[in-house]
Write a structure and sequence with these properties.
The chain is an alpha/beta fold. Helix content is about 40%, strand content about 15%. The protein has 14 helices and eight strands. α1 crosses α13 (about 285-300) and α7 (about 180-190) crosses α8. It is globular, with a radius of gyration of 22 Å.
Amino acid sequence: MSRPPHVTAGRYAPPAAARELAAVSADGSRLHVEVHGPEGAPAVVLSHGWTCSTAFWAAQIRDLAHDHRVIAYDQRGHGRSPAAASYGTDALADDLVAVLEATLGRGERAVIAGHSMGGMTVMAAAGRPRFTEHAAAALLCSTGSSRLVAEATVLPLRPGRARTRITRGLLGSPAPLGPVTSATRAVLKYATMGPGSAPERVEACARIVHGCPAGVRRAWSHVLAGLDLDAGVAGLAVPTAVIVGRDDRLTPVVHARRLAAALPDCVGLTELTGMGHMTPVEAPEAVSSALRELTSRYLTAPAPAAPATPAAPAATTTDTEKEKTP
């Protein structure tokens, strides 16, 4: 019997959604969407990364859904979203816009968070009118806008053409990853996580990543290898926070620092010591806290003013006192 594509118990097991729906993208691709938490609560939209799924956000959903409406979706070809005829940054933007339109009312705003390819999705969509309508703030986790293969440090080689060529071939390999074993967990931990990552966190990531179809993984790897979203960063005008692990080998800290310098309204750069690329799983409290801070600052409306104190009878109130009465 094959192992399930994600863990089924504990903090990293995906919680049941309050409701599920399908969003239809511009080219007809259907996207699996989950909505968690109470209707009317501050909204957070979560966009996962390459080879992942909504299950990747399990810890954030559990932490936030008590008092937030959390919307998570599977990128095309991932999780429960079928494979598509085309892949590219336009598709990433189209898909995010379709999710926003399917889950948010006209003019309703949300904090939009993206991890890795999900962060690239946010950058790709930055110039879309529907994104501008719905985005109150953004969180970019462990991501970059260009030079992904050239600056990846998965291979312990000197920077240069040889390392770039081998890295591109490795990430774009058509071979299936196979079952989750002690050996594959060790490889995944080295490539994508910090050296101190707890076994249950490594297991959660391995189950999710190994569940991604090899063809989909390879198709998206070609998109990422040629990625250039620097213009999208410059157009991401909403308040944006950036989080990165200092031991990230896939999108090293140089990417996060470059993003923070280029963003029109960067509201914070957090570098997490000892963490790798999988920050929402490796550092769930830090990511959830950043989302809560963004919703508190940019979504939560101030409390309504207290009811006015009834004025005293006119016979006993002077003109001066009337002016002071609330």
